[in-house]
Amino acid sequence: MKNYHALSVIFTLMLPALANASMSIMKDPSGKVIAVDPWSYLDEDVMWTSARSSNPAGGRVHGQLKMKYAIEDNNWRNSHFHNGNDSLTFVQGVMRHDALPGWYLAFSEGRATNYNGTWEDQSYLSQNQWTQLIIGHEYFYKRLRYGWDVMGGSASIEDRWQGRVKFFTDLRVTDNFSFFNYLYQQIDHRRSGGSQNDRDVRSFQIEPGVQYIINNNTGVWFRQQFASAILD
Question: Counting C-beta atoms within 10 Å of the first and last residue's C-beta, which end of the chain has fewer, N or C?
């Protein structure tokens, strides 16, 4: 029953934000909507810093903070096998300062747990707790927005240090139609401990896509993701 109590509390806390959770809207100084970023069209683990969701409005320091709890529960058809995971992002934010135009500071702290069995009767397999700090810069040229950011962090699974360099672009062809893309190179270094040896994972990912803004809270998008990784 404890799981259901936790879900009830989290759902209650989320209710005020449900109506606005599907889109992040960017407006120009006159109030006209110039970009709509659907939360679901981006790989949030990588792209939440560059979705331009922290809009310049009020105060010298501005940005966005959020907390997220997600459950993935797999019940395979015609099989008794059941598994899943739950993920809690304690805090995730992107902050900007008017005195440093184009720059942003981002951070993320959370935990994910994998399990076998049903949500009511779980056998825990593993748990990963992560911490990330990101510094980035974006540039504007007419209808083109592009930029980069650098991430440093750690993950508890296999005791890893993490580093990532990412580049992103967003080209607004018209007020409603745009192309977007990002690519990144990441390295995960496992520190030796006990009988384990150092081991690195180098990964690369690129994701081009297009989107069409129908109105202030609706959009259509298509994306294609390519990824590879090498274990050293």
Answer: N
- Tokens found for residue 179: 């192309």
Nearest to 147 by CA among 213, 215, 96: 96
The percent of residues above 70 in pLDDT, for the chain, comes to 68
| pTM of this structure | 0.71
Distance CA 69, CA 63 (A): 20
Tell me which residue of 24, 50, 40 sits closest to 169, measured CA to CA.
50
Angstrom distance (rounded) from CA 45 to CA 151: 12
The arithmetic mean of pLDDT across residues 37-44, rounded, is 51
The pLDDT tens digits for 56-66 are 555 677 777 78
Report yes or no: 145 and 138 within 8 Å, Cβ to Cβ: yes
Distance CA 155, CA 190 (A): 9
- Which residues neighbour 130 within 8 Å (Cβ) at sequence distance 6 or greater? 108, 109, 110, 111, 112, 153, 154, 155, 156, 162
